[in-house]
Every structure is written in C-alpha cells, then in structure tokens.
Amino acid sequence: MTTAPPRILILYAHPAPHRSRVNRRLVEAARSVPNVLLHDLYETYPDFDIDVPREQALLADADLVVFQHPIQWYGMPALLKEWVDLVLELGWAYGPGGTALQNKDYWLVATAGGAHESYRENGHHRHPFSAFLPPFRQTAELCGMRWLPPFILHGARQVDDETVATHIAHYRERLVTYPDWPEFAGAHRDDIMQDQLN
After folding, report:
1. pLDDT string in tens for the chain (198-residue length)
2. pTM, two decimal places
3. Which CATH class is domain 8-197?
4. d(Cα 74, Cα 65) in Å, to the nearest integer?
5. How far is CA 107 from its chain centroid?
C-alpha cells in the first residue's frame, strides 16, 4: 500500500517580489517540489479582498503550513496579517469548535534585513531575534498547531551568494524530506526548537 505524500501549503507574502533577492529564489525552489502548493497572496489578492472559504479549504487540506515572507517591522507583511485576521476565525481555527487546524504543522520561513549580530542586547535591535517570535508562535499554538523551528536568513541583502545558495538548497531539502526531520524524532523537541531560535 502506497502512502500519500504529505501536503505542504506555502503562504507566500512579499509586497515587492520583483525586488526580492532571496524570497523569489526560495519560491522557485519550492515550486520544484511535487507535493508543495505555493500560494502567492499578493498575486492572488492585490486588492486585499480575501476569499475566506477558499483559504480555509486550502488550510484544511494541508499537513504542513509554511508562512514565508520577509520580516517587516518585526512582524509579517500587511496582507498576511489581514489574512490571519480574517481566515483564522473563532469557531473554525480556535475557540469552541475551532479544531480545523489541530495537529497540523506550522513553519515560519522568513528573511530579515538585519544581520544576526544586530539581534542582541547591545545590537541595533536591542533584543535577540527570538524576542520577536511570540506572536507567531502563539498564533500557531492557539490554533492547536505544532510550532516547528523557524528557518530564518539574517542579513538577506548583505550575505554572500554562496550563503544564499546554501540556504535555498537547505529549504528545498527540508520540504522534500518533511516530515522526516530530526526534531520529530527527538525526545527533547522543545529544547531543540529553543536552541534554533537563539
């Protein structure tokens, strides 16, 4: 008996993809994976008029939900925030009767303009990068989803081409091998995740 491949939904939100150095190439890599549905929100909803039933149907069909976007003002782009506000409805995604997303996996894949060194107490951003992740993680947990270690590229505009190429190859490898990831096999999964945030 053949097991169906896991279904991966990538919610891609980049307000200026033509100016993207990294995300555009991550998208190209993801599109080459057969069981991935790449959903470009800015292309689909340029007027921000989100089709909530359609989006909920896409989510319901996915095993892994990927939020892929640049970090903007320590959060997600405006259209993705609007998407979260409208699509993750009370009684559907969370709250009484809101079980549609339970036990699905949530993976944040993001690029940050600031270098890794800028995210520390004495750095430009005054806090470690993990300090800006609670809203993402709490969204996942409120919906009963499993929070996976984020996949972040710091200094996306400055890092060398080799670093970018390695990052893209790793992203594709993770998509191809999901859910056979080391963190699923470990007994101390929370510890592994926290280590990758710092």
Report:
1. 557 889 999 999 999 888 888 999 999 999 999 999 999 999 999 999 999 999 999 999 999 999 999 988 878 999 999 999 999 999 999 999 999 999 999 999 998 865 566 666 775 666 667 777 889 999 999 999 999 999 988 877 888 889 999 999 999 999 999 999 988 876 344 444 444 443
2. 0.88
3. alpha beta
4. 20
5. 4
